[in-house]
Amino acid sequence: MINRRQVLQISAGMLATQSLGLHADSITDLPLIQRSIPRSGELLPVIGMGTSRTFDTKASPVALGKLSLILETLFAGKGTVIDSSPMYGSAETRVGDVLRGLENPPPIFAATKVWIDGEEQGIAQMEESARRMNVERFDLIAIHNLKDWKTHLATLKRWKEEGKVRYIGITTSHGRDHEQFLEIMRTEPLDFVQFSYNIEDRAAEEKLLPLAQERKIATMINRPFQRGSLFGKSRGHALPEMAAELNCNSWAQFYLKFILGHPAVTCIIPATAKAHHMTDNMKANFGRVPDASQRAEMLQVFKSL
Fold this sequence. Notes:
- By secondary structure, the protein is α/β, with parallel strands linked by helices.
- The chain is 43% helix and 14% strand.
- It has an 8-stranded parallel β-sheet. It has a two-stranded antiparallel sheet with strand order 1-2.
- Helix 1 packs across helix 3, helix 3 packs parallel to helix 11 and helix 7 runs parallel beside helix 8.
């Protein structure tokens, strides 16, 4: 639980956000891009936030001030999705600390995962996640990396029927288990799936994304920048002229817009520890989305780097 000093630090972070001009009208005046969750039709802004590594910090005033800047920038860019996991160390707790420190936090789409063996252990973990993230009811709980998935999926189905969670799903944070992942997608009533996809790692285009579209399952995309390695390839290179057609003024936005060009993508959750990077990411929440021919051109640009 945060103390008074930490609340004051978070408030200072909010003032710093304002001084930096990180408001929706300063990020862009372009139209917000939203995608619907196929099972319900509910609209989500396409750029959200992941918390792996970046929110696994100590509860120091300095750390909380930095994290508050990141969350405030997410909100300024009309983002709502915050994704975490008990696998991410103290990330869930830090999200909750910052949200508790905000005087009037906006509505969020709160997502986490269950990552443990056993039914009772899974229930206890999910209840603890709610306390940590300061969430009364999660919008989405997914089974992380398919760990004891049959046990937890039975619990999540029951919880959804009882109104304890709105959406349920499965995730993979690596390239393994795709065949088992696909089989669960084919046979179970999932609302969401989460996996890696980016302009370099396009394996999901072969089966995962088409099956999600066919089965009307929402997709949440992790590792959109291949853990930062994409920037090593584009560093020192000027953006192509066609980037302006897509309202992109950075490589981060270019890479995010490429992902958004796939019609089966619902939401992307880049993680960052820097507010100015978050501002950059959130600009991809607005403007134009590439069509198939523009995506092909973007891919050729990337291959030529």
